[in-house]
Amino acid sequence: MGQQLINKEHITHKRSMKAFIRKHIGWLFIIVSVLAIGLFYFYPMIEAFLLSFQSGAGASLKYVGFDNWMRLFGDPSFLAALINTSIYLLVQVPVMIVLALIFSVLLNDPTLKFRGFFRTAIFLPCVTSLVAYSVIFKYLFGVDGIVNHFLLNVGAISESINFLADPIWAKIIIILAITWRWTGYNMIFYLSSLQNVDHSIYEAARIDGANAFQQFFQITIPLLKPIILFTSITSTIGTLQLFDEVMNITQGGPGNATLSISQYIYNLSFEYTPDFGYAATVSYVIVILIVFLSIIQFKVAGDKK
Amino acid sequence: MKKYVWIVLMSIGWLVLVACSSGEETNNSSNEGTTEYEETNAITAWAWDPAFNIAALEHAKEAYSGDYDVVIVENAQDDIIQKLNTGLSSGTTKGMPNIVLIEDYRAQSFLQAYPDAFHPLTDVINTDEFADYKTATTSLDGKQYGVPFDSGVAGLYVRTDFLEEAGYTVEDVSNITWAEYIEIGKDVKEATGKNMLTLDPNDLGQIRMMMQSNGSWYVKEDGSTPHISENESLKKAFEVYKGMMDADIAKIVSDWSQFVGAFNSGDVASVPTGNWITPSVKQAAEQSGKWAVVPIPRLDMEGAVNASNLGGSSWYVLNVEGKEQAADFLANTFGSNVELYQTLVQEVGAVGTYSPATEGDAYAVEDEFFGGEQIVSKFSEWTDDIPGVNYGQHTYAIEDIIVTGMQDYLNGTELSQVLENAQSQAEAQLK
Amino acid sequence: MKKCKRIFIYTFLSIATIVSIFPFLWMISSMTNQSVDVTRGRLLPGTHLFENVKKLFETVDIVPALVNSGIIAVVTTFLTLFIASLAGYGFEIHRSKGKDIVFNIVLLTMMIPFAAIMVPLYRLFGGITDTMPFFGIDTLAAAILPTVTTAFFIFFFRQNTKMFSRDLIEAGRIDGLSEWGIFLRIYVPTMKTTYAAAAIIAFMNSWNNYLWPLVILQSPEKRTIPLLISNLGSSYSPDYGMIMTAIVIATLPTALVFFFMQKHFVAGMMGSVKG
């Protein structure tokens, strides 16, 4: 009798042990990442936050309270950067995501010939060195560049356009450059996720008489939703932190017409007499914007929280 | 299924191996680094151009007779700026060099942002022996921190063949004003179809050169008060710049390679810039004999001279272990060695700012590419005439504001308005 | 009709290909030209390939830089894949309120520009240089460590895990596999293409990473490829023919990694793999 009781207790204990392990083993899976992120990203991030309340040249920083945050509102360079970045974001991210989706669906077709070649070619821009492609873009769109030659020859324009010296054209070129470079990159994420989609779903849909468009909108898009959410958030982050293209193609010019927030941060930290405090404040503007946009994107995607 | 487990296990094993061996490797070499330092007193020096200042360091190292080994490390200029700023502001001096080359426009910014980071060299070199204009930028609060290196003395590189076609001689473009330059430019364009020069809307080096030829800068003498709306030289420089655009004698470029490409392919008739461009000009070997160098044009106003500066840099010693050795190295090489400067001119083409050196033979050498002229001796002669200005610590911050202003001005906004806007913006930004 | 559609698709892809690879071809063409021709914007291949390659190998230590970049990129890729997939799996499959909060904090760290945290991070490594020299400033380990665990890949694996069938996990549990066994024997093989995509991106990011290696690595013998190329371009009279040669060499590894990895993107993999 007593023995039985102990056994029973032992069993329930064992069972609860197992339940306990199952409930908490998840932490074991994430513990390394959480510690590393905490040390290498979260802790410096807090330091940067404290820095955003300080100002001064180089190593001589002083606490200035909310001065940096107030300074943002009266800083024309910052406002220009904010507006430019918003334009890049609104125009470029949707176009790129849609293009990448189209490419990935086309290139996922097993009956397509030269698939590997096409995929590699479309992926190549994000591998191509920044140095090379900034030189190329400047040549293509120079006053006597190839694009102008072409447009003049076909009679579309009567006089060369100085693309990089015109505030609107320069922005368009930056948008083209980002799209050119990152579409293939985003395509990878879709391509890889498409493999996880069971092909029989498409077979079934085809039997039901769904055409390619219907398949795309009613099967592919809903199935890829987690990845579409992923790419929209990471592209949003990428665009808000945009630096390489601007730095290498226009350096923010003409005037401040193409300046991005990240390039302004770079200028404040390295190009001018460094003010790491104010640079940190501007960085946190990016953080706030992304947090805000990400919440919207999570909501739109209907990701259950 | 088993296959995958094996793959994963093997990769982890391999990874641990690689990580360990690379860890060991780095461990060893960092140990070696420190012992090397203790035993042989190695000092490290950073500079950026292998064909220019790195080469100069190599020659200095050869000429140096001290007991210390000098390790020369090449880093891109922007990279040096980022490394220095990150290192110095984090307060860890580990990994910092002993000697570093800093562009003159940025020197004050570093000296003031990191007050204790640099080692004063007041007793190490005799500043009177260097070109006057260099002293203002390399010292702070009466203490000398930099050993002046290259002269950024500007010259007007001209294509004699294009000038001839338009009916001008080399004398006609010597010691002229910018207004005269524009007039000549128009004639050259008419006769040859070539533009007179290149302009990069994002790089106002031309404006800087024009201002300095009249002893003026974006900031007042204190180095920090913006001097824009009441700056007559700047105003004049703006007018000249617009004059060039209106006269349609400028080819617009958007980066360095296009700038170099323009004169290499014979698209422009002149290049007004610093003397360090000489190697790039000579790169187009088939143009040998078609070039000449004359003094840079001056602003058409009282006090302006036909001499100016663009760029140029100086050596600094960081306040870290080994600073005495580093100072000793600089004192015995760039600080006093006349022979070294001869080698620099001959082998590297670097025009120094050390006055006693200019008497040497190397400065008088004739260059066939430039029609047999003694261009080095010319450049060093002009160096003495460069008006000294305090660049202060905000050159690039203000220039970004000015670049925007220039766009407005070219698009028709009134000049006084443009400069007043720039002034108030600079005042707001540079508190 | 169907043929028409095919022709349209091929035309569309061909145009996209030309636009995509044009700068790449120019790069390759430039590596056969001398500097003067590159600055003049010459498009056609020239005859200076051998000269450029020779100059490159003579003037800079490109081989050690390739080795350094290789070590960093390979180690980073493996560690990233391992750590991030574990975390992505843990966050999604073993979801709990507490973990969701932690996950949101992790996501937050993806949003700050790296330039803003660089100085504190550098100070962190400066602080441990004396006590743990092989993780300190100027070591490959320090160049690798902060880059292996990024919110980006954790997020990527978590989103992909959302598409992973829970039935497979239940099946594994019924078969008596441990939680670890389920991850290793069911999840990892099923998510092969996700790993392939992550490997491409992780390799590329690491291979091209610039800012962090720049500040943390000091001695020339530890330099990575992007730092070396940055040096080549900063001289007053850069040799563009040689630079382009270096760039082409620097680009090839990532292109090759992609080319071999993309073969794993074969439609309908899912059905053929059984846990």
From TrEMBL, chain A:
Residues 82-297 form the ABC transmembrane type-1 domain. Keywords: Cell membrane, Membrane, Transmembrane, Transmembrane helix, Transport. The keyword Magnesium does not apply. Pfam families: BPD_transp_1. One of its GO terms (biological process) is transmembrane transport. The keyword DNA-binding does not apply. It is a multi-pass membrane protein. The chain crosses the membrane at residues 25-43, 78-108, 120-141, 161-180, 223-243, 276-296. CDD domains: TM_PBP2. InterPro entries: ABC_transporter_permease, MetI-like, MetI-like_sf. One of its GO terms (cellular component) is plasma membrane. It is found in: Cell membrane. Belongs to the binding-protein-dependent transport system permease family. This is Lactose transporter permease.
TrEMBL record, chain B:
Keywords: Signal. The keyword Secreted does not apply. Transmembrane segments: none annotated. It holds the Pfam family SBP_bac_8. It comes from the Bacteria. Residues 1-21 form the signal peptide. This is Lactose transporter lactose-binding protein.
From TrEMBL, chain C:
It is found in: Cell membrane. InterPro entries: MetI-like, MetI-like_sf. The chain crosses the membrane at residues 7-28, 65-89, 101-122, 134-157, 240-261. This is Lactose transporter permease. Pfam families: BPD_transp_1. One of its GO terms (biological process) is transmembrane transport. Keywords: Cell membrane, Membrane, Transmembrane, Transmembrane helix, Transport. Belongs to the binding-protein-dependent transport system permease family. It comes from Gracilibacillus halophilus YIM-C55.5. Its main location: membrane. Residues 66-261 form the ABC transmembrane type-1 domain. It comes from the Bacteria.
